[in-house]
From TrEMBL:
Record-linked SUPFAM superfamilies: Clavaminate synthase-like
All residue ranges annotated as the JmjC domain in the record: 198-339
Cellular-component GO terms for this entry: cytoplasm; nucleus
Cited Pfam families: Cupin_8 (PF13621)
Protein name: JmjC domain-containing protein
Length: 348
């Protein structure tokens, strides 16, 4: 899936490279790789100018957001600035001093205003209650009905391995309690077993109406396959990361419990180590929000909230990363800027 760490490595090291490049520009060095229509603006040379967030987008493109809401679209390979935009101010303001994750029993409209448009996490308790999956899905169900499907599990240190779902579920049992358990993350079940969908939400349900995916308004080749099942044994972990392509996510817990640890976008610089990766969460000095999802609960993780996830029990979840309305103009602008890039490979 490539989601873990991909963004924040770009935030720290990408930004430093860009800054070094901008400084070299100011010194009058030739600027190989600059797209002619857009050069690195001189204010990048300000040492104090550090981004507070970065949105990984199409290809290698990263959008760096600043405290004042300014946003620079940067092609990280060529280090050229491709567009200037503004981030929704709600994203930059989102922090844990405001209302954060909480129980929710309101209407779609309330959810939109208080969470989706405000970039505030939410826990929607028992919002998947009544889905047939809640009664049917456990490890035995998948071994019996989907055992012959080849899946790709994540092993130690992010290594991936293809194996039959039946064998993966067996391995989960054998390795229970060990370190770094294998974890089936991001299984795009709609390709292999689309019939599973009938066990989930229906048209007109909260999930269908509240979580509109604005990717659908971009050309079809840019609709990502960000709709997955996660199946993991108690103890399996998804390390701290930010979800790809500026997407919000919802995740509904079907079986077992999961703990989410969330950090606000405004704290992003505190989460990164010198080398550009994420620090272990135990070493992060800022406030975090911990939420335990019970079967039937759904969490809404807004774009750019970093999160770590741990299976507290043998766990099955369904999740969808979707593009929200307020980031759509930015993502569309990035898409157009990316599409308008000259067709040559700049020299580095
Ligand atoms: O449930 C998990 O282990 C991780 C889910 C998640 O954060 C993701 O899909 O991006
Ligand atoms: Fe995630």
């Amino acid at each position: 899936m490539g989601l873990v760490n991909s963004c924040c490595t770009s935030l720290a090291s990408g930004w430093r490279r860009l800054l070094a490049y901008a400084r070299s520009q100011a010194l009058g060095l030739p600027g190989p790789g600059v797209v002619p229509s857009a050069s690195a603006p001189s204010e990048l040379c300000e040492p104090s100018r550090e981004p507070v967030t970065a949105l990984p987008l199409f290809g290698e493109m990263v959008l760096y957001g600043f405290a004042d809401g300014e946003l620079l679209g940067v092609e990280s390979q060529t280090r050229a600035v491709l567009l200037r935009e503004r981030l929704p101010k709600e994203l930059l303001e989102a922090d844990l001093a405001r209302k954060s994750a909480r129980s929710f029993r309101g209407s779609v409209e309330t959810f939109r205003k208080q969470h989706l448009e405000a970039f505030r996490p939410a826990v929607l308790r028992q919002s998947a209650q009544g889905w047939p999956a809640m009664e049917k899905w456990d490890f035995e169900f998948f071994a019996k009905h989907c055992g012959d499907i080849e899946v790709e599990a994540t092993l130690r240190q992010g290594k991936r391995q293809k194996l039959l779902l039946r064998d993966y579920l067996n391995d989960c049992k054998l390795q229970a309690g060990g370190d770094e358990l294998p974890y089936l993350r991001g299984w795009y079940y709609q390709r292999d077993a689309p019939w599973l969908q009938k066990d989930l939400w229906e048209k007109g349900d909260f999930h269908d109406v509240a979580f509109q995916d604005w990717f659908k308004r971009l050309p079809a080749r840019h609709h990502p396959d960000f709709h997955w099942l996660f199946i993991g044994a108690a103890g399996a972990i998804t390390p701290l990361h930010i979800d790809p392509s500026a997407t919000h996510a919802w995740l509904s817990q079907i079986s077992g419990r999961k703990r989410f640890t969330l950090f606000a976008p405004s704290d992003l610089p505190e989460l990164l180590s010198e080398s550009g990766g994420f620090k272990p969460i135990a070493d992060i000095p800022v406030k975090r929000q911990e939420i335990v999802l019970e079967p039937g609960d759904t969490i809404f993780v807004p774009a750019h909230w970093a999160h770590q996830v741990e299976c507290l029990d043998d766990s099955i979840s369904v999740t969808w990363n979707f593009l929200g309305e307020s980031l759509f103009p930015t993502v569309r602008a990035a898409f157009l800027a990316n599409a308008a890039k000259p067709a040559y490979e700049p020299e580095l």
